[in-house]
Amino acid sequence: MTSMNAHAGELSPVDALAPIFKASGDPLRLEILRVLRRDTFGVLELSQLFDMRQSGMSHHLKVMHKAGLLEPQREGNAIFYRRPLHLDSDKLTDHTIRQIFETVDRAPLATHLQERIDAIRAQRADQSQAFFARHSDQFREQQELIAAFDLYAEPTAELIRKRANKQDWTTALEIGPGEGAFLPVLSELFAQVVALDNSRDMLAKATRTCIDERLANVDLVEGVTDTLLARGDAFDLVVANMVLHHVPSPADIFLDAAALMNNGGCFIVSDLCSHDQDWAKENCGDLWLGFEPEELTSWAADANLVAGEQLFIGLRNGFQVQVREFWKSAPVS
């Protein structure tokens, strides 16, 4: 029989903990928590990962959600699941959940699960690449359905200028330069700039921008962050403008950016805040409908990056852009 607080009629601390331990007391559910350490997956994807019927997976997710171990994230018409973003360290139940996460994360991920996760990420990447291959000629028009370039590029450029003036920075990397519209800013501030994109069509447009703008210090590279990690490249600044919502695993971009940065380096991100405009997936090739600021902060913390300045820009069409900086050391004041 459940014990109750005689005066307030509330669950006792022990009773409040019981559903958490019950929901997590299953090997499969612990594995689900493990694969959701940094990624966000839909019900169908999780069913594929664990080779089980969707109805069975939905039941497990419902139990875990009710216990506070997971929270749903709507992406258009689809529901994805992630670990909760808001956990209060002073609250006993939240402290317990955090301890469960920390414990399960110490267990190595099974090889077959990692391979299936890689396959899902590859499917997402193929989807994004296919979109840009089909619509590279309309890239600017489609992007500006959401946010005009100058609305996020100028605040990002101003932040970089402010930081570069106080640092002895010489090298910069732009992940996903698109048509290369931001490259003139980086070319002016840095001795060496690398522009990395996995779309050959978009790189061709960025190349044309470099030729037209006479940007002689920009090296255009076709590939992904792993390409540069394999080369042993290192940068003082890494920037990703409106890129994260196109990549298969945004959390991994933070890990790779940290690995690619020199000590004292900075990762600057501009991207959409979470929204419900599902048409952006079809019209703009978006894989994700923006991000909660806490998601970026959490991914940065996992990569041992320190959050610095942040700016939020409201747009007339209801979208909101966040410009964030994350340091590989204490942020510069």
TrEMBL record:
It holds the Pfam family HTH_20. Coiled coil: none annotated. Transmembrane segments: none annotated. Residues 11-104 form the HTH arsR-type domain. InterPro entries: ArsR-like_HTH, HTH_ArsR_DNA-bd_dom, SAM-dependent_MTases_sf, WH-like_DNA-bd_sf, WH_DNA-bd_sf. SMART domains: HTH_ARSR. It comes from the Bacteria. PROSITE patterns: HTH_ARSR_2 (PS50987). NCBIfam families: HTH_metalloreg. This is Metalloregulator ArsR/SmtB family transcription factor.
